[in-house]
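Q: Hi! First time asking for a complex rather than a single chain. Here are the components, and I think there are two in total. Is that enough to go on?
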Amino acid sequence: MNTPRFAFAFLIVAAVSAHAATATKPSRYADLILADKPVAYWRLNDASGTTALNLAPGANASALNGTVEGKVQLGQRAQLATEFPEFEPDSTAAGFSGKGEFIRVKDPGAKSPLDFGQGDSLTLEAWVFAHSIKDGQQVYVVGKGRTGNKGFASDNQNYALRLRGDDSAACVSFLFRDAEGAVAGAKKSKEQSEKHWHRWTSTDGFAPGSGWHHVAVTYTFGKSASIKGYIDGMEVKGTWDMGGKSDAPPVVDDDELWIGSSMGAQAGSSFNGLINEVAIHRRALSASSLKDRFNHVPPAPKFDLAKLPKDRVQVEVIEGISATPNWNFAPGAPAEVYTESAFGFVNTPTKYSARGVRVDRSNPFLLRATAKVTLPAGEHRVLLRSLQSARLFVDGKQLGQTKFIIPNGSGHGKVEEPPGADYPAGLRFARTGHNEQWLTLKSKGGEHLFVLEGIIGGKGLKPEVGELTVSVARGNELFHLLAPKERIPHTDAGWTAFTDSQLATLATVDAQRRKDFAAEEHKYWAQRHDLARKTVSAKSTLAVPSVSAATPVHNAVDRFIGARLEAAKVQPAPLVDDLAFLRRLALDTVGLPPTPAQIEQFLKDGGRPQDRRTSAIDRFLAQPGWADNWVGYWQDVLAENPAILKPTLNNTGPFRWWIHESFADNKPMDRFATELIAMEGSVYHGGPAGFGIATQNDVPMADRAQIVSSAFLAMNLACARCHDAPYHDFKQKDLFSLAAMLKQGVQDVPKSSSIPANANIKVGRRIQVTLHPGEKVEPNFPFAALLHGESSASLARDAKNSREQLAAFVTSPENERFAQVIVNRVWKRYLGWGFIEPVDDWENKTASHPELLAWLAREFVVNGYDLKHLARLVFNSHTYQRVAGLHTPASDEPADRLFASPARRRLQAEQLVDSMFAVVGKRLDAELLTLDNDSRRSAKDFLTLGVPRRAWEFTGLSNDRDRPALSLPRTQAITDVLLMFGWRETRQGPLSVRDHSPNVLQPAVLANGDMGNGRVTRLSDDCELVDVLTRAQPLPELIEAVTLRVLSRPPTSTERESFRNHLEAGYADRVVSAGKSVRKDYDPSQLLSWSNHLNAKATEIKLAVEEKARLGDAATPRLKHDWRERMEDVLWAMVNSPEFVFVP
Amino acid sequence: MKNRNLMNKLTRRAFLARTGVGTAALGLGGLSPLFAQEKKTYPQGKAEHCIFVWLGGGAAQTDTWDPKRLGDPQKKIAGSAYPAIDTAIPGVQVCEHLKSTAKLLDRFALLRTVNHDLIDEHAAATNFVHTGRRPTGTITYPSIGSLVAHERGALADGIPPYVVIGYPMIMRGPGFLGAKHGYVYLTDTEKGPAGLTRPSYVNTARAADRERLLGELRKGYAARNPGDKVIADYDEAVGSSFALANGDFMKAFNLTTEASSLRQTYGGEFGQRCMLARRLVQRGVRFIEVSFNLNFINGTGWDTHNDGQLNQHILIQQLDQGLAALVSDLEKNRLLDKTLIVVATEFGRPPEFDGGGGRGHQGKAFSIALAGGGLKTGQVVGETDELAKAPVKQPLSVPDVHATIHCALGIDPSKNIFDGPRPVPITDRGEPARQLFA
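A: Yes, that's all I need. Here is the structure of the assembled complex.
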């Protein structure tokens, strides 16, 4: 009977015809029930009033009419006829709030149709839409006795159909009390009392809130084995739990039957949701009859089959779906349509505003994937895996559905068991919190239409895709992702390669979309930059000094620097050699040493040596790593400070993603500053609005104003938070006026923004409190005159928007300060000293080369605030390309900064970590940066920052609770290194220059830490270097290749000799023929999340995982143990060498 | 001579300590008159070290140091979960599971009226108890460990002044004092400190090979960059790091050299941490934070909501064993008078029981225990009401507790330290419990 119905459903899908549905009107559901001759049948579709009619036939039918007690809401909209074809279009139900309302049915007396005794068979059935049910709670659908009515024993349960909450599911449950236990009067112990209760509960259930479900039990008293339970027409397994099974007779008396509650209508046993179609039969209905009760035609997706792209999976992103966790909604038009190669998803395209900044989609939204896939004839195992609920349709028929996430704030949940030995070989294990549905599909062979729908996010949840997949296998084959054409094994390796490619494609798509969406915005900035050029060209020209022929000159920069050197009679350092230059350039552009291929390309490049360097500069500036290398810098300067667990002081949203996109797009810096100040877009998922929050801060906008002014104007207003700055010319009011601009309204001065009475500070001549708590400050830009930008406000697109105004003041071409501050920051980054120091506080400071600073700033402005243009000028200069560290300024005085030789710079923490992994060819391989692995919490409290690919993506691990179960050992090993080298796990305030003084723990953490040992220098299978090491080649060639790869230079003769001595023994037969491993060992931390971290087992598991992490990656079987270890020693020495931590 | 270099290296740079970071160092020599201090004198204790035991999660005062009438978790009757016993201080009782400590209680001073109002969030309260400050929008405050390390440095050259046995966390950190006043940490006594302990799979021979190979690379690099001070400084730090990793400090972590009878006296992992703390004291470490985060015992650690209460007595027993052993051992080694032990937690717990038979959070009154440190021990400071829900006599704020600790260590709690040009008093108006000082 099912098959034709589903075929009918397919018609809807294929024909896109709404009429088809109404043309064949289905039989009424009531006819189905009445055909089975119930003794009582309350449809509960009574429109209103206080009576629930009994529709079971019989002369005394009305005796079994129910009366409404309490606020039962009759006439609630029930099953949609479009989804449940047997129901009439206006089907209604009774609504219960879970607080104790119920429907009372009086027992007509002895031997009534409602009494069931020994030997009697019964069927209890109903439709329910459960809104919520707590774990361990049992709520009544229908039960006789146990009402708490006077004159009856309180435990006189003849029978009851209940739902029991278990592990976030609603399970069907049957309960009765045997007559032996119902002897009135006798006082019984708890134990004695309990053994007379007999409760059977299904092991499976449905998710509360997941829409309408049919539940039923059948039972014959006296035959405990006869119990059967049904959910949605399917028989479910279960067990007799409380009191065990019993063939004893039940209690029978004349107590009432209640629908929706029990036990004196106490809330704990009361149903919360909708109920209708309650029926009682005096026989056990067959499985096939009950199967026919549930005929659900899911609101099948509509689309045009003919338009499906060939050999691709069509993906639609649909926003604005219902936020309640169920499938009872009709999806609207897709916001995005694109294609993928297979039914596997880790992310969706990012949404951008018309200004090109990240914005949030609706939460939740729907991902729908559709494709025609040809399968060979036979039986296929199908695995549907998802984080949030997903369902799979094959040829219009729903094959399976996974559960909804139940939001959960507790940490006391249970720890699941790991997958057993019977888990399919090679199949990638499911990530924490993911649901799996194992399905079977019989195919006659040929083309099938597959539709996967996955809900992403939900109320109180993060909109995370997780790993949403459909994979298939025949027999004992490996599971492969379902795909029209590609064959992608669902193994760790297959999945990693697939998702790498998906994410790369999405990144490209996103970049294009930023361009397309913000086309108007680009035009606006083009006009702004035209205006800026005009403004600058109207000013007097800046003469480039001339220098003697002896002074080396690559470009104008060198003339400014050279003139000063000549005057000071200082000889500049010579050019650094080619390979050292390349390493310096690579580190300064992409933050990594050059790859062997990049070195080869550079060395092969013909032409003049200088042209070779210039082409290399152009190549490296075009690398995507340019963005990665800038993010860490601006995270510091802008105090980007996301926390993965419950925000504390000055936590922000993760606007890192916007920073990254800005530099990936080489966004003009005036636009970058403007977008930051506008604080638009996504708060918790990477837009500049994330900059707009500063948690636990009572004047967040004063904090933001301070960051903006130090970042872009080099004005330090920190002191002005509480008093007029003693060493600056800034008043408290200046800061609060800026804060008011960002707040777009009057800013109050809080109590904390004053000098506390105890502060041991004498308020006097120099330190004055000029604003007092409670004062109100209007938005105003206090530095307009100072920055010669009185007319700048006219640049604001919205004159009334004070953030726009502030951005205009900051970035106006009239205001030379902005461009010079950026130039000075860039110069400091590449040469080691700024023209003005410190770069974020210019008050009363002078520049070492004011003319060059002004000249570069104009170049920068004339070229549209293009950072790469500026960097190109610097990189091409002789000044940048000189040997470093030969001349150290005699003092901190600007006059002593001559730039005869660049400063010796240590790698930034992020560069160091990235470089270490890069030279051996490994990914960072940290844990997913979250403490909410099963995604049951909102982004407001628990951010998820993804699996880091570059070091800037890390953040503090927030284990403020000191709980082992919350540790992330592999990530910790990396952040230990980052922290030691100056990276900050929290950025409560802005920082422009990190502390670079060496300390003993820096080399120590590299030499002994787990990152350096068990990871970077462990030759594991996923390490690209192993491919190099197993290649057939003479040992000296191998040494050459490895040294070039790690240190970007050939080995010295001493090193050659030393490495050869160390690696010679066993070299010839170092290679073992072995395949790569298919699947990583099961990682038991997969079982853990915040939701169960207070379980003792979670701590035990995590301690074992920590221990394993300490031992590092598994070594490759492709190299002999002994030789491999010696090779690791050589690598260890190279990455621990001071040479590795410095820019050449 | 070589040793001398190492000492310089460590004191000068890595663990820069003492009071060198004064106004002069910041180029603000002329400003000090502006920040005139109040004239107030503080007691000056003679303790040289501090062992700061951390009961993360919020230990219930009624089930430890401040027992009250017996309640019942099952029946939800408010009160202590366990009977109380007499102690070496006449008239003062503690929970029966602190039986060894009870006998030594005359070496203790119990602060029973510590209070604050941050109870909703462990992180906020942990931050407050560690820094003595509420967060303000413009400053990241240092932890008490970093403050003490900053003020007094290590007692021996070449030794880190501040060691944490527990997970790294921001509130244990140096705040505005900067990374060099941070800590060395280990999560487990079996492992040794992160970053200083050679991995188990690198044996001595292999380590020697590595050092030799690295030595050649270092030599070559230095030779190619003569006179480059930046490189030379880092290279020197590399040398120092080997000296530290192979030196006396690291021997502290080899607990197997202790008599097994003593190890047994100390007990499980918490006890071993206490014993390690004593060994670190002996090597000149100034401040050691010992975390009691053995959450595998009851799941929740000291955060005994719901069923976390069930095995709380095991936590208390282990605390008792480790603490009593530590006090006795320090005393035997004549270190107790020089070593202040602080048993702290972020807040207490109410006398009432929650639906799951455990306890919620209570900040209005909770206990911190002090021992040794040359204080006038054998007394209880402050008094709570009949169910330890509120102080009735001598309430102590968290800054007061900090002031008491600083005074015990000879640090003026009102002294200004500097975040850049900004003066920040060591405690936020903290007043020490003066009766503890002779």
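A: Chain B is about 30% helix and 15% strand. Let me know if you'd like any chain examined more closely.
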